[in-house]
Amino acid sequence: MANADISRRRHGAPMADMNVVPLVDVMLVLLVIFIVTAPLLTHAVKIDLPKASSSANITKPEHIEFGIRESGDLYWNGEQITLAALPQRFAQEAPKQPQPEVHIRADRLVHYEKVAQVMALAAKAGLVRIGFVSEPQE
Length: 138
Prior knowledge:
Shape: elongated
CATH topology of the largest domain: Nucleotidyltransferase, domain 5
CATH architecture of the largest domain: 2-Layer Sandwich
Largest sheet: 5 strands, mixed
Strand content: 15-25%
Order of helices and strands: HHEEEHEHE
C-alpha cells in the first residue's frame, strides 16, 4: 500500500529538474555554424602595396654648452662671456623653436652660488631645459 502511494505522488507532482540536453544540442549546433561561417566573413581583397622605407624625422634642438671654471670664468660654447652679458644672450635664445637646452659644465670646486646665478638668469629669460653635465666616475 505504501508503494502505491509513492508512485501516485511522483506522477502528480511537477518535475523540479530541468532538462539540459536540448539546450546543449542547440549550443553545439550554433558553435558549429559559427566555426564554419567565421572564415567566410573575413574575406579581404589582396592588394600588392608599394614598398617604401622611411625614418622618423627627429630634429634635435641645439644646445648651449655653458662652462664655469673654478676661478669664476664663464664660457658660452667655448667663448668667454661676462655675467652681465648673460641675460641678453639667454633672452636671444629663449624664443627659438625648439628651445635650446642649456648644458652646464661646472668645475667641481665652483661655488654653488655661481651655478645658481646662471640657472636663475636662464630661467628668468624663459629657458626651461637646463641640465648638468658631469664625467662618469672611474
